[in-house]
Amino acid sequence: MSNRIDRRTLLKAGSALAAAPIGGSFLAAPALAQGKVEVSFFYPVAVGGPITKLIDAYAADFAKENAGITVKPIYAGTYQETIVKAITAHKSGTPPVTSVLLSTDMFTLIDEDAIVPFDDFIKSDADKAWLASFFPGFMENSQTGGKTWGIPFQRSTIVLYWNKDLFKEAGLDPEKPPQTWAEQVAFAEKLTKRDGANTTQWGLQIPSSGFPYWLFQALAIQADAVLMNKEGTRTAYDAPGVVEALQYWVDLSRKHKVHPTGIVEWGTTPRDFFEKKCAMMWTTTGNLTNVRTNAKFPFGVGMLAAGKRRGSPTGGGNFYLSKKASRAEQEAAFKFIQWITTPERAAKWGIDTGYVAVRKDSWDTPAMKEYVAGFPAAAVARDQLQYAVAELSTHENQRVTKALNDGLQAALNGTKTPEAAMKDSQAEAERILRSYR
């Protein structure tokens, strides 16, 4: 899930951002006493709020346990703003030692020669066991060409949320979400309410702004279609399964009339859910804490309904290591990344934020077991990982993703048929990616 940035945008932004202060001061090489190392750390969030307090606490605790290493979090804005700042700092010669950036930024970072693989730092059996501990589904967007370029940290999948009270009103079992595409339509028909020509409650909302490609990829996976190859050099936007998935999405509004027409806003969909304007919604498991805090009714969390199969793309951010950092800085950052992704800390991060704890063994910790026992919905995204695939990621990712987003919005707005929209999207993606083959 993401907003991404392509090379041309980076180059255009480069000169301005290279001179811009970050967090009120210019990013420069750390001036520390001999033997001490400072790890500058870009994190994708605006300054302030509970997340920054968590990250600040981790940095302070790590420093207490590791004399001679200081971790300096720099809150760099949205994911899109953070990747621009990270690449610009790389070009100017003063990049952060490590950054949390989208897993799908991997090819962009490799193309910019901005990062190093983690393989050179994996030396001991304990290191190998640590690397093997992450869920395979999250490693699909972290490895390419036989090398590991990113370490999963704040990762997610798409899940279904539903209002149990509205299920009861509609005569549906409040504990059983739809399991198939056909059931999803049938449930949504019962859950849609109208006052004459005005729809007061939609059965289902799937957001189509912000990250339309991400929500759509779930439908494509469920239609047993693959959007891109592992090398990030080809797409298959016009494959029959992809067209079938888009037709299903369009039909929800235009044929079945259980879903709003046109573009459904990513940011307002949870609010619509809280206000009972929709009975079911698709959104990230990263919204779990938000929903738990703000829903004034009993709600359920479930895996997405299956078409030919179940499925969701993964999403979220990885740790990366800067190529221009010194070896001592890289080693210190690697130590911090291992420290913050221990089973206990991965579990705590998942509990505190709603992201999926990224290691299998973190789910066996006492804290996570207690959390899941009291809030079983927290385990849904983990259980869905067995059906998950890598999020859409290619070279020139911003442009290739935009080609798909443009086609999706044309079909949802009714200006193109799903087949024509995907044919045009594929032609544009092919034009962009041809040179990478």
Automatic annotation (TrEMBL):
Q: Which GO terms describe its cellular component?
A: periplasmic space
Arranged from A to Z, the UniProt key words for this protein are:
Periplasm, Signal
Q: Which InterPro entries match?
A: Bact_solute-bd_prot1, SBP, TAT_signal
UniProt cross-references to Pfam families, sorted A to Z: SBP_bac_8 (PF13416)
Give the organism, scientific name.
Phreatobacter cathodiphilus
This protein is called: ABC transporter substrate-binding protein
**Subcellular location(s) per record:** Periplasm
Specify the domain of life of the species encoding this protein. Bacteria
Q: Which PROSITE patterns does the entry link to?
A: TAT
- Its main localization is periplasm
The similarity annotation says: Belongs to the bacterial solute-binding protein 1 family.
State if Cytoplasm is listed as a keyword: no
Q: Which PANTHER family match?
A: ABC TRANSPORTER SUBSTRATE-BINDING PROTEIN, ARABINOSE-BINDING PROTEIN-RELATED
Where does the secretion signal sit in this chain?
Answer: 1-33
